[in-house]
Amino acid sequence: MTKDNHRQQFPALANKAYFNYGGQGPLPEPALEAIYEAYKRVQLGGPFSAEVGAWVVQEAMLTRRAIASELTVPPETIALTEDVTVGCNIALWGIDWKAGDHLLISDCEHPGIVASVMELQRRFNIEVSICPLAATLNEGDPVAVIADSLRPNTRLLVISHILWNTGQVLPLAEIVKVCHEPPLTPPCQGGGQEDFSLIQGDRQEDFSLIQGGRQEDFSAKKHKVRVLVDAAQSVGVLPLNLIESGVDFYAFTGHKWWCGPEGLGGLYVSAEALADLHPVFIGWRGIVTDANAKVLGWKPGSQRYEIATSAYPLYAGLRSAIALQHEWGTIEERYAEICRLSKYLWQRLSELPDVECLRKSAPEAGLVSFRLTNGMPHKKLVDLLEKQGILVRTILNPDCVRACVHYFTTEAEMDKLVGVIANQLV
Predict the structure, then answer these.
(1) The pLDDT of residue 1
(2) Any bridge partners for residue 403, and if so which?
(3) What is the three-class DSSP state of 54?
(4) How confident is the model at residue 222 (pLDDT cuts 50, 70, 90)?
């Protein structure tokens, strides 16, 4: 399918230059039709009928399979949620936190996730620290920064795969390896008795692992750090194999780079991490009952984290949106085109005298963030662009403008964006 033919499937692209895929992708016509037909089927069958009930189960299964195929994971590891934030909250609140536990988060996370972490800290008296990943955008090693920030009592690392503000792609597999395979003698970052006591105070049967000469097993048991990833900007962009990455929790949405409907996303929970993550929001979709409605336990796999009634017709819309992207090319081909086009925009913006791109080299994904150096407020520029049918957004930290480039973005759109910015800066 040619790019022009592909773009014709998106009604929102007909009268504007769209650069906000990282906020919400435009819904393609086939997905709109699939959602409408699904709602119609529910009404014709009766919203609360045995026929529609069986259809809902089938739709959920097909959607988990479609998502799992994109992430290269088994379908049973996928929980269907509303969005990234819900998925992150399931993982954040499902851990059995104890006072004194340590949570590590980067300085580039979305405010919605930061606020959740702050509430965890208040409610459970956990320790929270921030690792400075923003400084590694153009130089430095994010893996080393994270490794240096881990403590003996660290239980969870919270990061994004692609940083939503700067577009930096983090080396996920390497980060997970550092968290899952710590040194045999973990560094005591705090250097004080409080940190050391967290190890010394463990139960005798755990300590016996050292006594028996199995120090390596003890280290893995007591110091393995779970990794939660905000995947808002990576799903639909990067070729993914979550099994190979080793990541524990991966929260994503369908309404951004997949260009699916808002209100549908998911959470991947690895088979190993499943046992340590308790359901927080609980409803009939996540439990098993007997013939007398007695609760017997959780559904197997990640389905235990699903709750209750949802907008089921959105499932067909998301599957349709994903399928349409495959009509253009493979995920590897789409990612290569995203990188080619984002490099083009980055180069054009870098040529403007009063524009500074945050990255000093070509972007690794579709987020191109830049700042004005002539004193014009970024919001003013964004408002002026929107009046001319060009949609970008401001980012507050760091203070900049963000333009998102998808695989079906055109050079003409980017030339228009750069041209209007140049005229505004004269």
Answers:
(1) 78
(2) 368
(3) helix
(4) low
What is the distance between the alpha carbons of residues 7 and 13, in angstroms, rounded to a whole number? Answer: 7
Q: List the one residue out of 404, 421, 398 whose CA is nearest residue 348.
A: 421
Per DSSP bridges, beta strands 102-106 and 78-81 are unpaired
Q: pLDDT tens across 166-208, in order?
A: 999 999 999 999 999 865 444 444 433 233 222 233 333 332 3
- Phi, psi for residue 154 in degrees, rounded to 5: -70, 130
Distance CA 165, CA 22 (A): 10
> Which residue type, as a one-letter code, is found at position 193?
Q
> Could you tell me if 167 and 363 are in contact, meaning their C-beta atoms sit under 8 angstroms apart?
yes
Exposure pattern of 380-419 as b/e (b: 16+ CB <10 Å)?
Answer: ebbeebeeeebbbbebeeeebbbbbbbbbbeeebbebbbe
Give yes or no for residue 18 having a pLDDT over 60: yes
The confidence score (pLDDT) of residue 419 equals 97
Paired strand residues for 268: 78, 250
Q: How many CB atoms lie within 10 A of CB 153?
A: 25
Distance, in Å, from the CA atom of 336 to the CA atom of 56, rounded to the nearest integer, reads: 36
pTM for the model stands at 0.90
CB-CB contact of 163 with 229 (8 Å) = no
In Å, what is the CA distance from 17 to each residue of 23, 38, 239?
15, 30, 26
Output the pLDDT for position 183. 58
Mean pLDDT confidence for 288-315: 97
What percent of the chain is modeled with pLDDT above 70? 90
The residues facing 402 across adjacent strands are 369, 393
pLDDT tens digits, residue range 376-412? 999 999 999 999 999 999 999 999 999 999 999 999 9
3-state class of 405 per DSSP?
A: coil
Element (H, E) at 228: strand 226-230
How do beta strands 226-230 and 367-372 pair?
A: unpaired
Report DSSP letters for 106-175, one per residue: ETT--HHHHHHHHHHHHHH--EEEEE--GGGSSSS-HHHHHHHH--TTEEEEEEESB-TTT-PBP-HHHH
Quick one: which of 121, 178, 171 has its CA closest to 148? Answer: 178
Please give the angle made by the CA atoms of 102, 104 and 105, to the nearest 5 degrees.
Answer: 145
223: three-class secondary structure by DSSP: helix
For the chain, report the end-to-end CA distance as a whole number of angstroms: 40
